[in-house]
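S1.2 Input.
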Amino acid sequence: MNYQKFVNIVKEEVAERFSQKEVEVVTVTKKKNNQISKVGLTFKNKTHNETIEASPTLYLEDLFYRYENGMIVLDEVVNEICTYYMESQKWIDENGYVDIRLEDYESVKYRIVCFFVNKEMNKDILNDIPYIPYHDLAIIFKIAFDVRKDQVATSLIRNDHLIMWGITLKDIAAVAMQNTEQLFPIVFRPMDDIIKQITGEEIEVNDMMYVLTNQQWLNGAITMLYSNCLKNVGNLLKENFYLIPSSIHEMIVVRESGVEGIEYLNAMIREVNASEVNPEEVLADRAYYYDRKTETVSDC
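S1.3 Output.
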């Protein structure tokens, strides 16, 4: 079964489950991070013939991978989609709207968060949204409707939102970082711990590499900008260090004493991005360097 056929079959099965409800299942294709198109399912209100406001779009690539590799059967795929949709309705009111008044800045400002994307790879969409340049990255802003341990529902903030709210980029930036730190708490762990957690195997302790992310492990690269984060990491390591943008979800911290050459390090990042990282999750092709004395980040 190819991917398109999988999507069509899943759509029909999910639609059958919702046939007695005022909900129509719709296939959508959206451009996501790094201009990568993804196919998903969303939902329309049959009565009003319009897409339910802030209805979750469920992307099927991961489910297809699990199905294709025998990790899940079709009925389980459908069950997951239906369960996620029903759970999402807990934060959507009876009219199909999120329990946040989007036109009211006071209603949304405590849910505004920020994440990193690659500036060049997303230059087209950056024309329509507020952002702050940061080296070769861009800090973008979203409304976090629902934040859980393993999933997050967000909506991208556009220039039109700022006009509607009567605020500036400076205003939104001021609240976004504070909210992000609260909603997405920081995680800083030795790489050895992560490998052991994944493989279950005891490995030789190595204090050269660490993972910097958030508790959700989603869009966690932005944690490097949390208050005093890099300063605290430097104090812990007691030396300068490199930040490897392994994906939009995390930064890998490497002690300066553990790096033999910048050229090799950047070449490794490019190779891994090209061969191992999901194209939608690529963040940057070069490392950054943190100097403890000046408390600054520079390009490598």
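S1.4 Remarks. The chain has three domains: 3-91, 105-183, 186-299.
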